[in-house]
Structure to design on (667 residues):
């Protein structure tokens, strides 16, 4: 493999991993606070549709990104009020959010099907970006890629090194004790869920503004669900989530290249690779960790404070 | 402002019935606002969605035909959901059922007229049901043996099932004389579900849905297994002390819901469609989740909920033609409806109090 091709493959793996890791990191924070939000796919796709629509209308990519994030936050807010303050069932409400999001994205995007716009540009530093193999990989990505890496570092630092992170983890591990210590359990959870929604919206905006710069119905194609699986796969740790996302990005890119090279396998089998890989990853993980659960102890349980 | 929840001592029967109705009303209200935001008349939309399909015989039959798979799948799902098992992959089990049963329909196409054919349709229905069960066993086994979340595996299997069907419809099962269209031959008449009345739309699949409701009523209300399912859902610790096996229940609940979805799948293929196509479901498996919750996981409630969602689906098709409202409106409405139902459920379990002030 020539250095140019190797570089191209590596760059595309990182790009494919970026929406997965951004969405997964947001969900990771929500889950560490004890809330399982199955609406990632819905928030992501609304982020993609709303972000693209806003970017077309205003001509500004930055505004598009902001609207994508905002859309994710708003949907997460609805979800949060239902499951945190009204103790509605988290699994069912998350599903409802995904169904709503898919429909809503279709409504928002219906006027924008077939439109194209310039992809958000890549970083270009003289000399550095032109280095062989690592040039484009390290110094020539789009801003989202760096945001994804920054997010992983920031979240790892926040969860493990700050008082706020400790509080958030306490809420997720044992909400009754956290409440007894005077921590506003439901408020912490709500903020964590809003953060997760913002990340899902950002991941969606990445898809429609940079990864494939157009809107197509159903364009998230299950990435939200793969992000949810990544959180489990990563044992709720940010850097492992990034590693997992690279693995999945690799599977996606490999699949694309295999299709282009027409190696004789049916295309349906190749496009199924990311979903198969998800199931396999979950199985492998469960084989490795049979002793006790590593999930946050209060994950999925509503907290209803005594009056 | 803060929201306080106070558990109700006893559940009120009135509220149990009123809650889903109120939820439906609120969802229609929100849907109306969305329609208005899209610049269309909410009153007209309400008429097209919920009244027009009821005004003609053929569309009434269409409502029943579309409700049948929803009810059948949702009855199966109610066993899972009651036991706190989250099979959200009914769509995949539906597809696999349709594919497996349909393959028999393709294989038996054009058999010599004097050959025995009475077995074909029962074999198709059995194959569809078994394929649904087998496909549902994957997440059930992974959960029971390895503790893998059934939510994620059952959903991923939907994507795999869709691609499997796509492969067979374009590959091995394609009609060789079909001008390269990605579809199989039309099944022979002996491989089609018979109609209930000559020249009408209602086929036997509608009966299956009604039978499933009846079975659901008996099994959930009158058998030890039904008690087991309800107990595990409402008091898992007590159920464990009483000696009920988690793993056995997982297999049973997934088998029931997978089988029901698989049967619904082959009924759709052998009834409505009559051949294998790359896509055989407009999302019945996901809509059925809403049906199950709107029906409060009770068989009779599910029957009514299935009719309501079928009505809105057919109304949505009408609205697309007569009002130029995108089909996604239906899906968005269904999502809103499910949220409203889940929120309304909170009011049946708790007294909800709003208090103003800064007490944290």
């Amino acid at each position: 493999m020539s250095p140019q091709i190797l570089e191209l493959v590596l760059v595309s793996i990182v790009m494919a991993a970026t929406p997965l890791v951004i969405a997964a990191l947001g969900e990771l924070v929500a889950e560490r606070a004890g809330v399982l939000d199955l609406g990632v796919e819905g928030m992501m796709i609304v982020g993609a549709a709303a972000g693209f629509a806003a970017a077309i209308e205003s001509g500004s990519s930055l505004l598009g990104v902001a609207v994508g994030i905002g859309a994710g936050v708003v949907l997460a807010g609805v979800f949060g009020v239902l499951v945190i303050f009204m103790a509605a069932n988290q699994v069912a409400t998350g599903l409802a959010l995904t169904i709503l999001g898919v429909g809503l994205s279709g409504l928002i995007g219906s006027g924008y099907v077939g439109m194209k716009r310039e992809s958000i540009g890549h970083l270009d530093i003289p000399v550095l970006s032109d280095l062989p193999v690592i040039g484009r990989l390290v110094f020539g990505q789009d801003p989202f890629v760096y945001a994804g890496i920054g997010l992983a570092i920031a979240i790892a630092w926040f969860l493990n090194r700050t008082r706020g992170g400790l509080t958030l983890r306490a809420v997720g591990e044992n909400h009754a004790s956290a409440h007894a210590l005077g921590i506003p359990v439901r408020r912490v959870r709500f903020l964590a869920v809003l953060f997760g929604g913002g990340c899902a919206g950002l991941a969606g905006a990445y898809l429609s503004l940079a990864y494939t710069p157009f809107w197509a119905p159903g364009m998230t194609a299950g990435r939200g669900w793969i992000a949810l699986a990544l959180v489990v796969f990563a044992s709720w740790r940010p850097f492992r989530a990034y590693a997992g996302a690279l693995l999945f990005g690799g599977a996606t890119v490999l699949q694309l290249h295999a299709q282009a090279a027409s190696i004789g396998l049916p295309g349906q089998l190749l496009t199924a690779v990311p979903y198969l890989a998800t199931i396999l990853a979950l199985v492998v993980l469960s084989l490795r960790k049979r002793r006790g659960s590593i999930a946050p102890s209060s994950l999925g349980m509503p907290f209803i404070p005594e009056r | 402002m803060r929201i306080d929840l106070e558990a109700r001592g006893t559940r009120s029967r009135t509220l149990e019935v009123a809650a889903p109705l109120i939820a439906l009303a609120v969802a229609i209200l929100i849907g109306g606002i969305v329609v208005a935001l899209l610049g269309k008349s909410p009153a007209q939309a309400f008429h097209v969605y919920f009244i027009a399909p009821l005004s003609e015989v053929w569309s009434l039959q269409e409502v029943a035909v579309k409700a049948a798979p929803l009810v059948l799948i949702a009855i199966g799902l109610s066993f899972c959901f009651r036991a706190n098992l989250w099979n959200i992959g009914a769509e995949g089990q539906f597809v696999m059922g349709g594919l497996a049963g349909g393959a028999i329909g393709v294989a038996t196409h054009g058999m010599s007229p004097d050959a025995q054919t009475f077995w074909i349709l029962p074999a198709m229905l059995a194959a569809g049901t078994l394929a649904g069960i087998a496909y549902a066993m994957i997440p059930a086994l992974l959960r029971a043996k390895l503790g893998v979340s059934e939510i994620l595996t059952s959903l991923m299997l939907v994507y795999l099932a869709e691609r499997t069907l796509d492969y067979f419809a374009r590959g091995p099962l394609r009609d060789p004389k079909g001008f390269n269209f990605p579809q199989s031959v039309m099944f022979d008449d002996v491989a089609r579900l018979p109609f209930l009345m000559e020249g009408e739309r209602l086929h036997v699949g509608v009966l299956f849905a009604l039978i499933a409701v009846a079975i659901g009523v008996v099994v959930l209300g009158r058998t030890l297994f039904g008690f087991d399912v309800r107990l595990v859902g409402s008091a898992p610790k007590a159920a464990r002390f009483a000696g009920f096996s988690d793993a056995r229940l997982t297999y049973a609940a997934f088998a029931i819901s997978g089988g029901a979805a698989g049967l619904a799948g082959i009924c759709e293929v052998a009834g409505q469609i009559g051949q294998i196509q790359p896509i055989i479901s407009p999302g019945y498996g996901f809509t059925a989740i809403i049906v199950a919750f709107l029906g409060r996981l009770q068989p009779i409630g599910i029957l009514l909920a299935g009719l309501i969602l079928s009505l809105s689906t057919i109304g949505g098709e009408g609205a697309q033609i007569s009002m130029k409202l995108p089909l996604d409106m239906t899906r968005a409405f269904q999502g809103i409806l499910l949220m409203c139902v889940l929120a309304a459920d909170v009011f049946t379990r708790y007294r909800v109090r709003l208090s103003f002030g800064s007490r944290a």
Q: What stands out?
A: Chain A touches chain B through 52 residues (CB under 8 Å). Chain A has 13 helices and no strands.
